[in-house]
Structure of GntR family transcriptional regulator:
Amino acid sequence: MSILFENINKQKEIVTFTKHEQIVNAILNAIESKALKRGDRLPSINKMVAEIGFARKTIVKAYEDLKGRGIVESKNFKGYYIADVNTNTKLRVALLLFAFHSFQEDFYNTFRKELGKKYIINVFFHHNNIDVFKDILTRISGRYGMYVVAPIQTKEAGLLLKNIPSEKLLVIDRHIPLPGDYSYIAQEFEDATYNQLKKLLPEIKKYKKFILFFKEDTDNPLGVFNAFNKFIQEFNIKAKVEREYKKGSVAKNNLYFFISDNYLWEILRDSKLKNYIIGEDIGVLAHNDNAVKEIIFGGITTISTDFKKMALESANFIKFREPTRKIMPSELIHRNSL
């Protein structure tokens, strides 16, 4: 380890670097010169204190910085080790999503492009399953410099997220109450959906029945369900909530409202088979806009947040680490399906 200590002493001569930056740069230089290789053990905190005279918290901060880049890993009671020799990495980011829906694909692609190649992004999916959610967080705990999480909206999920330091956590998509100072860029569903439905009142009243497809045991937001019920009661709309769509059951003069896309594609297919005209014979309204909905059948009307903008703001949080608490607005994108 004498070469590492020599590197640190050389770094001390660069007065523009903080002490923790001097340690980080010395370790990176030692890796680049091949004095440190993957699997090599770094000096213990006590050894570093004795050799270079820096405070323990300074050394810990340097090691944690390198852990965040994936270059260093810690093993319980065994110390710190070189895990990766790619010194160009700025940060390792864990991105935990519900599933790879089209709108979340839009989020990922924009997020990936904005951060660039020096950021390593590993993507995980929990599929709204709390056991999967817990297992993923357990496996990735302490291995990343930043955690970007679309959470399950339950108390248990909140308790699990509390174990991540607030400065390393960004909650996206769904808001979840957490104690302390944490950042989020999320949607609000209930008021946003209700307000957009009111704008569509004249079109909605053209149809005999307004049907929402909603499953309470999935990632369908409860806020959409609440907004739907509030709206139909206030304006005396004949309506119904269905858990699933039965093949071939699409009927004229109904307006169908979708949160996820699975049943949307089935109804559009069945409508084509029956020669129904979308926007005349039946109405279609969906959550979460994407390029396909913009194009098919003359365009599907959507209530949606801008996932690309959410991704850009999330990437900026990762790069600049400025705390943020933001609810993304939802927009009504009116097309020919109503």
